[in-house]
């Protein structure tokens, strides 16, 4: 992803890509800004503004050709090649992410899931088996993982982040309640289901 691409814009574009990919799987050949808006909760005007800022994507009144839209969005997001990501925490959040269509939709390859709970180590979750947290740093380096998902209790989060950053991870998705301390060259996005729900309700008010 271009370092100049703001996180807020990148997040919206990523959601547009996911909707377009799903529409393509359903057999659609084109999609309108209103259809994208309906599935993402982003105002249709904002959808058009986001897309037009990167050039001409479609003709007014005829929507966007899905194959072209997907190709252009993947290029903008730097997703022509899969980006390696690890998940730390094999609880409900970690399992849900690994069993989702995240990899297919976003050009992301989840290369490992880790936990400290001995009862979870070796358990099959989707296509991967849970590895011991002691293997975290070696596996991050082996796969040159750039992204890390923090799905552990708040009291464990900072320690996990320190390990990931030391191993070379520079983009973190934080599902814990912890406020994380990271170097200036590391990006953190805190993902709270409650905060997302409140934001959606506020937009609909």
What does this protein structure show overall?
With 205 residues, the chain is of the alpha/beta class. It folds into 2 domains: 7-76, Arc Repressor Mutant, subunit A, CATH 1.10.10.10; 83-194, Rossmann fold, CATH 3.40.50. It contains 9 helices and 11 strands. It has helices at residues 7-25, 33-40, 44-52, 66-76, 92-99, 102-106, 136-143, 154-167, 193-204, and strands at residues 30-31, 58-59, 63-65, 83-88, 108-115, 124-125, 128-129, 131-132, 147-150, 171-174, 187-190. It has a 6-stranded parallel beta sheet. β6 and β7 form a beta hairpin. α1 (7-25) packs antiparallel against α4 and α2 (33-40) packs across α3 (44-52). The longest helix is centred in the first third of the chain and has 19 residues, at 7-25. The radius of gyration is 18 Å and the shape is elongated. The two termini are 33 Å apart.
């Amino acid at each position: 992803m271009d370092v100049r691409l703001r996180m807020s814009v990148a997040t919206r574009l990523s959601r547009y890509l996911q909707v377009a990919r799903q529409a393509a799987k359903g057999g659609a050949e084109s999609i309108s800004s209103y259809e994208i808006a309906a599935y993402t909760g982003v105002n249709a005007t904002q959808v058009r503004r986001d897309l037009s800022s990167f050039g001409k994507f479609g003709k007014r009144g005829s929507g966007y050709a899905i194959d072209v839209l997907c190709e252009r969005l993947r290029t903008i997001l730097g997703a022509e090649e899969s980006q390696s990501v690890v998940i730390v925490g094999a609880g409900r959040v970690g399992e849900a992410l690994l069993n989702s269509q995240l990899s297919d939709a976003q050009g992301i390859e989840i290369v490992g899931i880790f936990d400290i709970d001995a009862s979870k180590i070796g358990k099959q979750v989707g296509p991967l088996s849970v590895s011991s947290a002691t293997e975290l740093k070696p596996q991050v380096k082996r796969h040159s993982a750039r992204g890390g998902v923090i799905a552990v209790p708040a009291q464990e989060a900072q320690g996990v982040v320190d390990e990931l950053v030391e191993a070379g991870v520079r983009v973190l998705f934080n599902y814990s309640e912890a406020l994380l301390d990271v170097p200036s060259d590391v990006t953190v996005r805190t993902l709270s289901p409650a905060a997302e729900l409140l934001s959606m309700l506020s937009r609909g008010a």
